[in-house]
Batch of 4 targets.
Target 1
Amino acid sequence: PYSTRFNLRKSTFADRFYVGVNEETVELHYDREPRFYASLGFDRGIWWGNWNKNFDSTGLAIVRARKGETAARQGISNYSISGYWIKKLVNIATVCADDGAMTTVQYPWPEIRLADLYLLYSEALNEVSGPNEETFKWINLVRQRAGIPTVQDAWSNYARENAKYTSKDGLREIIQMERGVELAFEGHRFWDLRRWKRSHIELNAPIKGWDIEQKDAASYYREVVLYNQNFRLREYLWPIGVDELLRNKNLVQNPGW
């Protein structure tokens, strides 16, 4: 449950595809949907890669991120400040094995994905006509590809607010969350928060992570504040350049600048 997400838990053989067997990590790293493990690397998590084609490798890589370990801080810049790594941006053909074997395989970056268009369309349909069969169709196509239940099934059977998807406001939040999960680390959130007018909420919250300088699990998995963000309302609109204002006296500077 969410309330015990920071509790430590030792993995078993059943967790072997996501967490190293007999390794200790927090509960929030267990029993997540497939996109969590496809997008994020974390301490004691499995890092899938094309290791089986490297005959000198010893097996799947396990991220070992505590002080003194292979994925811990190395120097002043070679480390993850939060204790998480963006696995999503690494080509699956990249070799990453537990014996340290590693290669880098590049790939063309997709500027726009079909899932993005589906979610934008679902969002627009909800704003026009609210929850209906057509609105659900497009978000559910994204969820189906991810291997998870439809919005209707997931919320009806598992959510505390099991009727949330039946209202326009509720479905709006669900679609926004789906964009955050599906499009994580692809550069959309910056713009999504602005058009949703949620930047002043989300970008004033502190950024937190794990205490990465610690050796033992209990100390490592202490939540620490990494950075206090500061977003001002005027930043929804950027300032008009001074040269432009001088060039056209009819222009009015955006509020707050």
Note: DSSP finds nine helices and eight strands in the chain.
Target 2
Amino acid sequence: MTSVLESPVAIDESAPEDVSAPAVNTMKAKALHTALSDAVLFTAPTTARLPFLEAVRLEFGGGQLVAVATDRFVLGASKAEYLGEAFMMMVAGPDAKALVKMAKTAKRDEKTREVTIEVVDGGAHVTFRFSTGESILLRGVDVQFPKWRQLLPADTSRMGGIVGMGYVPAYMGRFTKARAEEQATGSMMVVFPSVTSSGKPGPTAIRIGDDFFGLLMPVRPPGDEWTYHRPGWLDVDVHAAASGAAEAR
């Protein structure tokens, strides 16, 4: 559930001398919008009735925000710069979309518009206050997100040993929308197919620039593997046949 604060709220900034001031958590609104809008692309629809896959996991800390989501068939993790304390929260899909909408920033304001993030109860309640006056309170949802890092290939040891991979076009299409501005200016989508420990087609790792990493799960082949064959119709050249017949006359 979200609560949008449309008017300024008076805040008592005084504090007892023996109480340390809370950490100031800040980031650019543009950066928040980029990371979160990337992750939202990979959430499950509400029709799936799987709340833990409809949510977005936000991991703050170490100088970065990592926003990640998965619907079991695709996974997307997007990074943005962040300064402040470390905490994690799970954000319901509708709330994540509301925050994306609020974080959207005009081109002229991208360098100056910031968001201050106020954390209560370790991420159970988080308020995002924008320097342009808007605020939104998000309540974290209590769901168990998959151990997503364990799904990511650690190295190239299981790559390069397979020729054919099957993908659902609609799932592949989501990656064309991630980091859209970077892709529009030349960033490549680099894919790394892998195999499982049993030699079957495994997830394909996808990188876009330096700050986006995703996984695309393969379609199971009809047999043990996808077999390559060149379709016979490619070798039917009626124009060459007609030309040869004309030369023979």
Note: The longest strand covers residues 74-81.
Target 3
Amino acid sequence: MHVKTRLTPALILSLAFSTASVALAQPSPTIDKQAQALRKSRTFVALQTAITNDYERTVREGVTLTEIPAPTFKEEARAKAFAQLLQDAGLQNVEIDAVGNVTALRKGEGKGPLVAVIAHLDTVFPEGVPVKVRREGLTLHAPGVGDDTFPLAVLATYARALAAAKVRTRADILFVGSVGEEGLGDLRGVRHLFQHGPYAGKIASVIVFEPAAAGQLINVAVGARRYKVTFTGPGGHSFSDFGIVNPGYAMAGAMTAISRITTDPATRTTYNVGVVSGGTSPNVIPTQMSMSIDMRSEDPRALEALEARLRDALDQAVAGENAARSTLKGSIRLETEVLGDRPAGRTGKEDPLVQRAEAAMRSAGLTPRYDSASTDANLPMSLGLPAIVIGPGFSAKDGHSPEESLTLDPAHDPLNIATALQVILLQTGVEHP
């Protein structure tokens, strides 16, 4: 039965703040109106003003956090600094959990499911890499400045802006600075958050902040599996033991075979041998050689198929080397160690969270651009929770490089920061906007 209803601004906002798990019967046009109504509200104007007035502080705090080294597994100092920012912003229950995540709660009216807003604390850079920010005009140069440090500063800005504008959300907001997002961290922070920590089973939807551009909307999680593969053999002298099996040759054969594996571009399935190690001297047949392999795909089945082909290539390389040379002193053996297993996932475009993000971007004059990535959102997506990745809209480049930089735009950055906050508020709901 169809009931025609007049959409008053109050009703539009009420509809927007229904639970995230229910699919909408009337998708984009209605949600677009909801986003426009919120953007024109007194509440949102007050938020924009607070964000604009706080912009220089956001930049200062982003620089301060950037200059605190935070390699994966060693995020403690940055975690303490970020926790203090959230404490100073007036959030409740500010804690550092058992694995190092910073969590802080902003209580709503208790009329909606818990929304988690996450940025990661760690960077890809090891200890010893200089992280002093070098400023040239409006451009900030430093490893990790964009990925993911400035988004952390923006979360603290949001907490202050919500307080300054006296915003009452329907749902609670959980602010999270996660550990172990990068590399060998293997999402250890969000694994604990969603599966073992005090908020496990309580979070209903997730908005992850990364250095995404304004209008970029990531709703597909790229799955990743990483292995360390070790070839071992008897070893010996390069002259007197010439002719025995060599782990280096076995590994070279495996690398050659892997390099010839073809993948379907439609599934964005990739692989890479990124680290090789082993041996002691040019005149020693090594006893051990190792390589680290990274595999990624948007499609879980394609990732499994790639892994099967890679394992075949490894087994054949070992068998080939054992057949090609003498095994009188011993044969080549293969050991594999899992370094990381990030699940793939997807939040459909029909999900209200995705539609609300789209609508917020359109209401700001942006054209949403869908994308995929491997982030903290992988984990909640794999658990069936609505999750997306957006950014505060800074212009960042050369991520994961020592040449990483972020260019400030004081005229537009506050607007982009506010638009990302609009996504959060459309998901949580606002009382009397």
Note: The CA atoms of residues 50 and 79 lie 25 Å apart.
Target 4
Amino acid sequence: MKAWSLIAILLISLACTKKDSARENSLNWALSSALSTIDPALCYDTVSSKVVYQVYETLYEYEYLVRPYQLKPLLAEDMPLVTDEGKTYKIKIKDGIYFHDSTHFGGKRRKLKAQDFINQIKRVAYVPTQSTGWWMFDNKVIGLNEFREKAKTLEDFFKLDVPGLQAPDDQTLIIKLKEPYPQLQYVLAMAFSTPMPEEVIKGTKNELDASNTMIGTGPYQLVERNHGLNIKLKKFKNYHTQTYPANGDRISYEKKLLTDRGKELPFIDRINFHIIKEDQTRWLKFMNKEIDAIVLRKDQIPIAIGPSGQLKEEFQGQGIELQVAPTLTYWWLAFNMKHPIIGKNLKLRQAIAHAVNIDEYIQKFTHNISLKANSIYPPGVFGYSPSNILPYDYNPAKAKKLLAEAGYPEGKGLPEFNYDVRGSSTVSRQMGEYIQKELESIGIKLKLNINTFPGFLNKARTGQLEIWQGGWQMDYPDPENVIQLFITKNHSPGPNSTFYSNKEVDKLYQELFSVKNEAEVKEITSKVQKIVNKDLPWVMQFYTRNYILHHTYVKNFRQSDLINNNFKYLRISTKN
């Protein structure tokens, strides 16, 4: 801590003597790991999303300055016309929207059309793509599962039609569902539903692989990608007309975030993403104005934040602003339920649940910023209740008793289990070491496996994990997005990386799509929580709250878990 403090003091003193020259109209943003993908059909992590959503666009997006979250049209003319008792969606596509210039288009400008959305949904369904978003369409769209079974080649991909995906003309998309699926509107705001031109699909080296090219309709287009180092984007000169929000909620008025109302987007000319894995390096670069914003980590919080929870005066004087942002991100200890020992022995999992001091874990690794989890649902999602109590707490004596009842007194007879760490940073390793120490205290030995974040995700998608820290950033503010993490059909490479399976949970999940009122939804969410708490594929840890610093020359900044395409709203003051 002393070393961190000395570094902070040194940087502040240097900043006091430093005069900014005219600043370039560029945003410099740090990524905590290398990208796992730039293919929107595979984009399902926070790091990749930050890049992908600047380049690709969706039919719908969230209002930037409104909470609770509300959807609005982006590439669509209006919200969908829903008929046939919720089973048919008719969507008009905006006219005059063009893709980024590319050799795939033979030197001509390529206009967006409805078929491009069908191409992408088919890519998600096509088995060789290995899309992490398939679960969102599985058994939902008429004929899509049959297409998935039959399409084996690129020729099949284009030859086979999907009856539930229709484009009667270039500006009309029709989606026909087997059953009502009210969450579809949220799915159409995600990268899995971005338009993909036929020319790009046919022109990529590995046919349906879009992991080495980025051609979207978004406000920014790819300029350069240096693997493991940086990604550079520039403003798309032919970007369609979109303007800064004219209205917002109370906070947006209090923070004076509506100064640019009605002005044409985007404001920034270039975005430079820097891959910086170490927390201390990110901090140093932020203080030196080499990056423009930073999410504070454990060791940085007491340096920048005072006892009252406010930014310390010495930082305020250097043109730095604090945002405290509740999130829809939460964390747990996860078990592979297919593992012959961990997954088959409930008493063993219960012993682990009582062996870890979550309060101390939160203090050590979030500086008590995060909120201890008391539910499988995060705050802000229907089904969450602050009065809910989990059926386990920190109790080493009870943990040892349960371990003996599991057949392994003091851990005797247990093999060493693999604990996979989510990243290669110092903090990631320390978090793993803490769990290792806690379980060793009752007789359970863990082998720590340090991974890059992409490597960790690959293990999760291929079912290679045993025990690990699981986490979820809500895709949309609906309890269905939590419950789908537990259903059988979403086993990896879907989002259910624990391979948990319970027929009653599967049944309750399906009932969500036909409920008539909130009381029925509440009953389902309550039943699912009781079953999951009993089966224990997860041991809940905490809900994330972020302390974010940004330089005051970054204007219009508002943090959000759900809004990944926010850079188009930002403005860089070149004179500050």
Note: DSSP finds 19 helices and 19 strands in the chain.
